[in-house]
Amino acid sequence: MTDLESRALLPAGLRDILSPDAEREAEVVHRLMSFFGDHGYLRVKPPLLEFEESLLSGSGTAVAHQTFRMMDPVSQRMLAVRPDMTLQVARIATSRLRSAERPLRLSYAGQVLRVKGSQLRPERQFGQAGLELIGSEAPMADAEVVVLVARALAWLGVREVSVDLTLPTLVPAVLADHGVQADGALREALDHKDAAAVVQLAGTAAGTLEALIAGAGPAERAFEILDGLPLSPAAATERDRLAAIVSLIRGAAPELVITIDPVENRNFEYHCGPSFTLFSRGVPAELGRGGRYLVAGREPATGATLFMDTVLGALPAASARERVYVPLGTPTSVSDRLRSAGWVTVAGLEMATDHLREAVRQGCSSFVTPEGVVRSTTERK
User: Residue 102: which of 304, 295, 297 has the closest Cα?
Assistant: First the structure.
């Protein structure tokens, strides 16, 4: 390996994004932010780094294991690189925008960095785009967020979007009712839907947990099972709230496929109510996730984050814009007119004797002559 090749290597999980993918991502993010803005969500832009104690306090402890840290040479305090943007938006809501009227609707987009990738998403740096609805406990707030992000994905061109709803607080409530400790082994068995292991580990809660595992699937079937379970008042309240949200989603987006997984908890560590994951048929990784949480431990909020690497992979390939070579000395008005017509213009920097050859070398399908745009087939435009 040469010295130049060695210096071009990047750490695992990090990569250069080249053209046309970089342009495509920027375009899609812009369209998403415009879509959210049209529905009343105001865009904010938090910094890439924050003081560690600020970023990782409260609910931030759930992502501490995924956070890069470094010393700030100015303040001599520890800094943290954001592994997720939701908690930053929550901080903005409770500080800079604490006096703003509620409900507060905010949107955001930016890059995040994580210590480790996952099997489905090995990238450690990737783009996020999302929205947060802060200050409302109404089920309509949860439904609005789900419907809005699902419609945004469909509007971009993602096909067959579905949403998988879960209740991260339901299993803890069931375990508490039976006096069973939610240790790591039981949590892992539930995450893997291992009913046999759950029976061995869950004691008197085993029957209810088995039924919850069996309830994973289409919303209608899940509620048939959930409605028949002897749940405590607290757990029944969580179930009924989820049912109300599903009904509101059905009314606003009847085309949306809805499934329910009553025991799913992975990656919902700081959520305290109905939560969800977005998928598209044929796409192995999740498009995004979201749900209900508390801002600063007290203010109700719900939101969603889209993972741009997965979203881009789910979109149809974009058609490339045609490039036209503009020889040195061509009037500026000609280039302006071509760009207005949708061309990408590539200006010549030196006099060339063979414009066709120069156009090919510059990756252009056409070149400009006094008579107009000429392709390799001598077609005039």
Answer: 295
Helix or strand (DSSP H, E) at 7: helix 3-7
Q: What is the pLDDT of residue 377?
A: 57
Distance CA 187, CA 104 (A): 35
Instruction: Give Cα separations from 167 to 5, 75, 174 (angstroms).
Output: 49, 41, 12
Q: Enter the DSSP assignment of 380.
A: B
Helix H or strand E encompassing 132: strand 125-134
Burial class of residue 284, CB neighbours in 10 A (0-12, 13-18, 19+): exposed
- Contacts by 116-123, CB closer than 8 A, 24 or more apart: 116/13, 116/66, 117/12, 117/13, 120/284, 120/285, 120/286, 121/285, 121/307, 121/309, 121/310, 122/12, 122/13, 123/13, 123/14, 123/15, 123/309
Per the DSSP assignment, residues forming a β-bridge with 112 are 126
The model carries a pTM of 0.90
In residues, how long is the chain?
A: 381
Give me the residues of the chain with pLDDT under 50, please: 378-380
pLDDT at res. 309: 93
**Closest of 258, 256, 184 to residue 217, by C-alpha:** 258
